[in-house]
Design goal:
The protein is mainly alpha-helical and 71 residues long. 72% of the residues lie in helices and 0% in strands. α3 packs antiparallel against α4 and α4 crosses α5. The radius of gyration is 15 Å and the shape is flat. It starts with a helix and ends with a helix.
């Protein structure tokens, strides 16, 4: 999945999916957030991570921001 052992274990993945359903958080969103963090591993500064999180958490707002910057 994401190269994280926890996400590769079927029992752990099932528990994660269940908890995401209970919390009404799409598993895809959680995985995208984790992936964004993983991409920053080894970097001294996590430039752009906050913006990426904002984009993932509020895609409508993120697209409006990019559109307004193009004007």
């Amino acid at each position: 999945m994401n190269g994280l052992p926890l996400f590769e274990q079927s029992d752990a993945r099932d528990a994660l999916k269940k908890r995401c359903r209970e919390a009404k958080v799409p598993i895809k969103l959680l995985l995208d957030l984790v992936e964004a963090e993983i991409e920053q591993i080894g970097k001294q500064r996590k430039r752009g991570l906050r913006e990426r999180f904002d984009q993932l958490l509020d895609p409508v707002s993120g697209s409006e921001t990019s559109e307004s910057q193009e004007d």
